[in-house]
Amino acid sequence: MQTVKRRRAAPATATSATARRKRPVRRTRKKLSTRRIILAAVAAFLLISLGRSVLPALGIEAPGLPKFGGGDQPTTETRTKEPPPPTIDLNGVLVHGGDTPMITLNPGLVRLGGTVTVQGSGFDQGSMIDVYLGPSKNAAPQPKKGKGKATQNAPKPQQVGTAKAGKYGVFTTNFSFPSRMTSPVLEVTAQARGSDKVAKADAAVAQGAGQATLSAVVGKPGDTVNLTAKGFAPGEELNVFWGRINGDPNLTLKADEGGSVGKTPIRVGVTAVGQTSLVVVGKTSGSAASAPFQVLRLYPSIKLAPYALKATQKLTFSGSGFAPGERVLIRLNSAGGQPVMAVQTNDAGAFKGAGLVMPYQLKGAQQLVFLGEQSRSAVASGFTILPFTPQARTNAYGGLPGTVVNFYATQFAPNEAVHVSVRTAKGAKPQLVSAFRVDQKGSARAVGQYTIPGDTEDTVVFELHGQRSDAIAKINFKVDKSGGPVDIPPQKPYTVPKDLEN
Questions:
Q1: CA 332, 337, 343, 344 torsion: positive or negative?
Q2: DSSP conformation letters of 40-80
Q3: Which of 138, 203, 349, 414 could make an S-S bridge to 322, C-beta 3.0–4.6 Å?
């Protein structure tokens, strides 16, 4: 009996256990299904992140990613801000005033795939600066295939770097130039986050390069090397190019009766910094030969004199280290825009004796930017515009009501008009009472006239305001007590003559 009971009880126990197992199995399947969805979403996110960051860093392009710049950039169009327009007239050219953000590029004539150094100044200390590379307004429109009209086919601006402005608002950062592009000129923009401070500079791309024997394989533009070439037609003219094979040649040589040129000294031409070639092409035979050459950067320098001056004074400058025979474009507080003047370098890549007269509108710290027109080598040098600090006094330190006062002044701007205002009581509105003009040295003696009113007590304050320099000199005139009323007719309102308006 006991054996039978055990056998009957076994199926019941199995059934109960089976029933208990079925319920948790269903719950487990639901949990596994939710986990799979979460895991699939995470995997998709990681794949997208991988495509946007790792692949571009390895040089692999993926659909929807920018062709140059940072790998984590969004696919939406980036719009960079524009610097404020120049407003100050310097030598007939509108320029920016002081404390304006600006950047320079080194090298300015870049090679595809090369490294570019961006140096900036004039930004807020500690601010984060985003650097973008995009199409330039100076680039010629590129025609699309199959269409006669030219259309701009340059890429949209893309972020290529980030830097933090250090002390005095200065920063330096590097970025790799794209290995292929559709425009010969691209624009670099440095833009401060959360601020309207922005600066721009153009990067020109060197034309093609090829591959004759040179006495040296390294040098900078302007250095002399010896060229040896052969394999050309006897007596034919040879065009010599640096870093290209078309356009106007850097120089023309003539082959001897054997079609050769032996140890001829030539100068290194202006071309992109880095590995390039000197190319020799025969005009008659069409034969070409090339020699590899490593072009070094130019490091121009500028000397200003004086480093601090006032408006109407002349700032002189000399320079060296540019390419021989190139024009150097000079701009104020900007690496782009119209230059205020241009100077020509000599055979040694130097110039001297140039200068500019400073206008009244410029105040404080300023920078001149010097850019080689062919080499694109740039250098900036700073100077300071000092304020005028005039001194003035009256013909007497004090006096009774009715005293006639005239004025003595020094250190105003040359030949400017000076307007005299008076305050006869504290908090009173200044009243224009006289005007005069200083001489070439900014001085005047016994000029203007004013009578101390009869009801004046204590102190009269005179303000002498230079109309060109915007400088002010103040005089405190002590009025003695008269001991009683003084009968002095009130003075008529003063009107400034037209010849003393400025």
A1: positive
A2: HHHHHHHHHHHHHHHHHHTT---TTS-SSS-TT--SSPP--
A3: 349
Residue 395: which residues within 8 A CB-CB, separation 6 or more? 405, 406, 407, 408, 446
Per the document, the length of the chain is: 502
Edge-to-edge, what's the strand order for the sheet holding 341-344?
Answer: 308-310, 378-386, 364-372, 327-332, 341-344
Q: What is the 3 state secondary structure string of 432-493? A: EEEEEECCCCCCEEEEEEEECCCCCCEEEEEEEEECCCCCEEEEEEEECCCCCCCCCCCCCC
pLDDT in tens, 421-475: 999 888 788 999 999 999 999 999 999 999 998 888 789 999 999 999 999 999 9
- SS3 call for 85: coil
Look at residue 325 and tell me if it is in a domain.
yes
For residue range 276-300, list pLDDT tens digits in order. 999 998 888 778 888 999 999 999 9
Residues 372 and 421 in one domain: no
> What does the alpha-carbon distance between residue 6 and residue 69 come to, in Å, rounded to a whole number?
80
Q: Say whether both 230 and 243 belong to one domain.
A: yes
Phi and psi of 298, rounded to 5°?
-85, 140
CA–centroid distance for 126 within its chain: 18
Determine, yes or no, domain membership for 488: yes
Same domain, residue pair 364 and 399? no
**Higher per-residue confidence, 396 vs 150:** 396
Sequence-ordered strand ranges (E) for 221-287:
224-229, 237-242, 251-254, 261-267, 274-282
Taking alpha carbons only, the member of 303, 469, 299 closest to residue 382 is 303
Domain end position, chosen among 236, 265, 295: 295
Question: The CATH number of the domain where 434 resides is what?
Answer: 2.60.40.1930
Domain count, the chain: 4
Distance separating alpha carbons of residues 279 and 214, to the nearest angstrom: 11
CA distance 191 to 206: 26
CB atoms under 10 Å from CB of 303, counted, come to 12
Q: Are residues 286 and 347 in the same domain?
A: no
Q: Fill in the DSSP letter of residue 168.
A: G
**In which domain, by residue range, is 278 found?**
213-295
> Is residue 258 domain-shared with residue 305, that is, in the same domain?
no
Residues 418 and 377 both lie in one domain:
no
Report in angstroms the alpha-carbon separations of 32 from 99, 272, 415: 63, 61, 91
Read off the pTM: 0.69
Beta bridge partners of 198: 191
Q: Which of 65, 97, 123 is the last residue before a domain boundary?
A: 65
Residue entry with tokens 């680039």? 139
